[in-house]
Amino acid sequence: MKENLQFTALLDILSRQDLITEYSEDCKDITPSHITINSKDVVPGTFFVCKGASFKEDYLKSAIAQGAIVYLSQQKYDDVDIPYIIVNDIRKAMALAARWFFGNPGDNMTKVGITGTKGKTTVTFVMKDILDKYTDNRCSAFSTHEIDVGTKVFETTLTTPEPIELQTYFDMAVDEGCTHCIMEVSSQAMKMNRIYGEHYKVGVFTNIDYDHISPTEHASMEDYLGCKVSFLKQCDNVVLYSDTRYFETIYNEVRDKHVVVYGSKESIEKLMSRDDDFFEKDTDFASIHNEDLTDHNSYFELIYGGENRAYNTNLIGDYNVENIVAAIISSLLIGIPNDQIRSSIRDVYVPGRLQVYHWKDRTFMIDYAHNYISMYRLYEMVKKTMKPKSITVVFGCGGERYKKRREDMGRLAEQYADKVVLTMEDPGFESCEEICKEIKQYITKPCYIIVDREQALTRALDEAQPGELVITTGKGIESTQRINGTFVQCHSDAQVIEHWLTEHPEE
Ligand SMILES: CC(=O)N[C@H]1[C@@H](OP(=O)(O)OP(=O)(O)OC[C@H]2O[C@@H](n3ccc(=O)[nH]c3=O)[C@H](O)[C@@H]2O)O[C@H](CO)[C@@H](O)[C@@H]1O[C@H](C)C(=O)N[C@@H](C)C(=O)N[C@H](CCC(=O)O)C(=O)O
Ligand SMILES: Nc1ncnc2c1ncn2[C@@H]1O[C@H](COP(=O)(O)OP(=O)(O)OP(=O)(O)O)[C@@H](O)[C@H]1O
Ligand SMILES: N[C@H](CCC[C@H](N)C(=O)O)C(=O)O
Q: Which of 230, 290, 336, 477 is deepest in the core (most CB within 10 A)?
């Protein structure tokens, strides 16, 4: 919270955006000391925001009983008697109110946002490493994995936090001296206006594929794409992957920005040889070539800005080279010297993504793939660069998510794996057993269902043969399962493998 908050300033911000339907005159004199969406988090002097599909009037009454002094809502509650602002879009109004309450802390950091069906967390961690070295650890980072405000790290359940939480962490980050911020921007964040009013120096678009279409996510692919693209409108520079689906549609939406298109040499050459004046004059291109990809290291060269730059990294896989290139270009765009970038990416750690363990000629791998695009690229990468004798894959599928993931991942397992163990992966309100059975329909290879994930993975490790690769996907290093509306603690895949390794010493 900032000193001298003027409620009239908030009314002004909201009315300039035509968001206000009605407000009580007495709200003008109010100076709140706290803002929240939750009646269980109210203290005297609270500014209470009423929002959400399951919101009840009783929450507001309870908030008032505990000292809430003003409310923001899309609906007027006649039974309560405190000052109010009624708006026509609570999500936008909430985002702007949260920004106002904390004094627009996000504006004090150079922000880079990453969107895409896949690659967001990886690009975020690569950039975090680069920016930490460049700023002497004054870079905040918001990812599916955690929220890092420079000196403190917090757990999170959402990829992009809800507005009040987001602004609270922005404020902390600025207080901790952060000058830069790197964050994943999910399509849901855009749909829910979580970052409404924020401005980004660079926006990365890694890719989009059929996913996240379900009753709790997006109604259609158009909605999903529209939400992702809308993020780029909040950015000065756009870093866009050349081989994404809907490339032309996306480019057309952002052609008024400075765009850098990145991708393989073949793909970039094809785009640059177009003779229809499709690209704006100030669009730049970055092409990856001379790749040398092994099972423990990647070398590649990047032609960008008239220079040929060579890089080495411990991250493996062609798609990780693409992720790193997105991070390199974004870093160059915010003024980080190439030498520093080059040395930062040599040794990068992305938790739970392609994390590899070796044991007596067997390889165990943890990864976060959980839909078509990621599973496909993971299997192809494994086939090309790791060349195992056989593959066992351990996975499941999240409940209340895009239904076709089950068929897609089942078919891919059938095509690439030799043995499949289906197990729990955030079933939500659905039955884990039923989800696994749906996936199993597409598999004729040896396949069994063990709902307990720890047991499933342990059995796969026990049965692994020399030359075999066991891949466990969809959870990374997460140590909770989303079940029936709560997060239940469990051992992470990493903990299960590490425990198994201590029980099975090589000698
Ligand atoms: C669709 C969406 O964004 N929903 C989010 C939203 O829910 P909502 O606004 O409908 O709120 P609600 O849960 O119905 O709650 C109603 C209100 O009553 C209040 N309440 C409740 C109980 C009480 O006693 N007192 C009280 O005041 C609550 O604080 C809340 O403000 O606000 C909630 C927090 O306030 C979020 O937890 C919730 O995320 C849901 C659970 C979620 O999981 N969303 C997923 C789909 C998501 O956003 N995923 C993306 C990643 C997807 C990707 O990978 O691309 C993400 O960014 O994480
Ligand atoms: N650029 C990419 N293209 C396709 N697949 C990728 C790419 N980058 C990573 N992957 C795969 O997707 C998985 C998840 O990667 P990452 O966590 O970086 O993506 P994300 O966009 O943050 O995913 P989520 O939305 O699920 O949090 C990885 O474990 C890997 O299997
Ligand atoms: N950020 C991703 C995480 C998915 C993890 C997976 N285990 C699942 O629950 O689908 C999402 O919300 O889709």
A: 336
